[in-house]
Specification:
Elements lengths: L1 H21 L11 E3 L12 E6 L3 H11 L6 E5 L4 H4 L8 E7 L3 E9 L16 E3 L2 E3 L1 E9 L2 H31 L1
Antiparallel strand pairs: 1-2, 2-8, 3-4, 4-5, 5-8, 6-7
Length: about 180
């Protein structure tokens, strides 16, 4: 009976973890007040990538995704913009790169390029980087990329980590009890 009582919290924790892991990922709507890009590299050529032309500020863009991409345990990470070439595509221009992580489930990367703030171009030469899409000028191009994790991988990862933690606790407790007996 005592062992069963010790197992109840573990069963309850695993039940909650499984509910979290199998719950659906939030659907990401198109960025409001923007034009969705149909240029190569912003549609089907690169899986899970979308591009938008907008005049929204960085704060407005991040707040939009913060409001529409919510979930339990969401983590926000600010990356150096150079990393966008590794994550999204090697030809992308970037002024900022932020990531929202839903642990074990998915990552959403938000890359923003503001041509007037391009740190790699001298201010007097930035005009050649203007963002024109379908005859209209925009201040910012937003590119998002998601990295979804299949449910099977989520569950396997979680239970593998749980088993490793139990093994480490067992090894540590055996070491402590052995040390106390000596």
């Amino acid at each position: 009976m005592k062992k069963f009582i010790k197992i109840i919290p573990l069963l309850f924790f695993n039940f909650l973890a499984i509910l979290y892991l199998v719950s659906p990922i939030p659907q990401i709507p198109d960025l409001s007040n923007s034009a969705k890009s149909d240029e190569p590299g912003d549609t089907i050529q690169i899986p899970n990538v979308s591009g938008y032309y907008t005049n929204l500020s960085r704060t407005e863009v991040i707040n939009f995704y913060k409001a529409n991409y919510n979930g339990l345990f969401r983590i926000r990470i600010n990356h150096p913009p150079e990393k966008s070439k590794q994550i999204i595509k090697d030809t992308i221009q970037s002024y900022y790169l932020e990531e929202f992580v839903l642990p074990f489930k998915e990552s959403l990367f938000i890359n923003g390029y503001e041509w007037q703030n391009d740190v790699f171009t001298k201010p007097e030469k930035r005009i050649v980087n203007r963002l024109l899409f379908k005859g209209k000028e925009y201040q910012t191009k937003i590119t998002i990329k998601t990295f979804p994790v299949p449910i099977s991988n989520r569950l396997i990862s979680f239970f593998f980590i749980e088993i490793v933690v139990f093994i480490l606790i067992k090894i540590y407790s055996d070491f402590i009890f052995k040390k106390n007996r000596d």
